[in-house]
Amino acid sequence: MNRRLQELIEGRIADAEALGRRRSTVRVDWGEGAEATVDGQPAVVFCSNDYLGLRQHPALVEAVRVAATREGTGSGSSRLIAGTGSSHEALEQELAAQFGTEAALVFSSGYHANLALLTTLAGEGDRIFSDELNHASIVDGCRLSRAAVHVFRHGDVEGLRDGLAEPAGGRSWVVAEGLYSMDGDRVDLAGYAGVAGRAGASMIVDEAHAIGVLGPDGGGVSAEQGVHGDVIRMGTLGKALGSHGAFVLCEAAVRELLVNGARSLLYTTALPPTSVAAARAALTVARQERWRQRRVIRHAETLWEGVRAAGFHTTEEPSPVVPVVVGGEWDCVTLAERLLARGYFTRAIRPPTVPEHTCRLRLSVSAAHTTEQIEGLLVALQEEAQALDRAREEDEGES
Fold first, then answer.
1. Could you state, in order of their start, the residue ranges of all structural domains in the chain?
2. CA 272 to CA 201: how far, in whole Å?
3. Which of 38, 66, 246, 358 could bridge across to 236 with cysteines, CB 3.0–4.6 Å?
């Protein structure tokens, strides 16, 4: 590396450090359930997206073993070359049946799926109306689509209606999430869908954090609000369903268009048979063990109520994602470090992932958690936050 490039890189890292935004990977060696060793520290994990606790389920592990033995460990190709097997087709049929849609298409990740939807369906001359808190994959898909992008205020149905009322020549699209992964809240998808439908616009909903957990039969927030038949949905296999990859739930004609034009499908290696097998097993387990969905909802309510009772700023209703808004970068990082020292692992979420001055601990619950683990986290959270407040007051008094 030449000296000028090295100085540039070191300068950018130093800038991130000065702002309290330098990031690093953390080594997590999983044990049973929600327990792990985090950089050598035994801890209960409260930042995983394994909502239904399926990642280590014996049925999924056995399905992976059988698939690896029969089909090998990789797909070896993209979907349109030699990467589509009978198991991929079976998974897509099962997804469509389980979540009540005409067709489904599997992708290598949620990022790939959102890029595919936005860059294939929308284009030059069209308009995309995107909720301001949408995920980075949606933001990037909007940018790459060449459509005119209109970002509207989070949850603002009236603002969306006013924007759609403006005359336009091309097609209009509305894109939102079911459960927002950093805020843990739901928007009025029914309201969004209503104004979109009256304006002749189509709607895409990212259900990554809701599929399998929220709504009837785990159909997501769009199913919870009764609009799943009116929208194109994206869901992931790597969160509640304990595998890897993602999928689009749509009409057969939309699937056909994606197969013929989605660059993030055409030019990426297909999911390996092991991931497909795990996902198929997860669909069966989720359907047969509905108690998992009920348990994670109960845990979410317990954690949410405890966070609110302790005086922290969080969401207005419970969900599997419970943010604890701390404010500044250093306070948030310090609180996360204090919790890890007590055996509870969560991460400090900082800009640009969240807006300035809203740094938070993003707590997430799983069916693998116990009530005792959640109660222990709440005690530790309140005690360590109070200790942090006292330390800050002492520092201010000395200065």
1. 24-51+290-398, 58-288
2. 36
3. 246
Distance CA(225)–CA(124), nearest Å, equals 32
pLDDT reported for residue 397: 64
8 A C-beta contact, residue 230 and residue 193: yes
At 335, is the secondary structure helix, strand, or coil? helix
State which amino acid sits at residue 376: G
How far out from the chain centre does Cα 282 lie? 18
Is this prediction's pTM over 0.70? yes
Whose structure tokens read 């799926």?
A: 113
**What is the 3-class SS of 100-120, one letter each residue?**
CCCEEEEECCHHHHHHHHHHH
Look at residues 243, 134, 248 and name the one whose alpha carbon lies nearest to residue 183.
134
Q: Which CATH number fits domain 24-51+290-398: 3.40.190.10, 3.40.50.200, 2.130.10.10, 3.90.1150.10?
A: 3.90.1150.10
Q: Rounded to whole angstroms, how far apart are CA atoms 243 and 84?
A: 18
Prior bond to 323 cis, omega within 30? no
Name residue 107's amino acid.
F
Cβ atoms 321, 133 nearer than 8 A: no
Evaluate if residue 188 carries a pLDDT over 80.
yes
Cite the active site residues. 49, 135, 177, 181, 206, 209, 239
**pLDDT score of 398:** 64
What does the alpha-carbon distance between residue 44 and residue 38 come to, in Å, rounded to a whole number? Answer: 9
- CATH code matching the domain that covers 58-288, chosen among 3.40.640.10, 3.40.50.720, 2.40.100.10, 3.40.50.620: 3.40.640.10
- CA R_g for the chain: 22
Max intra-chain CA distance, the chain: 69
DSSP H or E stretch at residue 140: helix 136-145
CA atoms within 13 A on the CB side of 45: 23
- pLDDT (tens digit, 9 = 90+) per residue, 258-314? 999 999 999 999 999 999 999 999 999 999 999 999 999 999 999 999 999 988 999
Reading the block at residue 220, the tokens are: 């997501």
* Structure token pair of residue 135: 């995920």
Q: What is the dihedral of CA 336, 338, 341, 347, to 10 degrees?
A: 0
Is residue 378 within 8 A of residue 307, CB to CB? The reply is yes
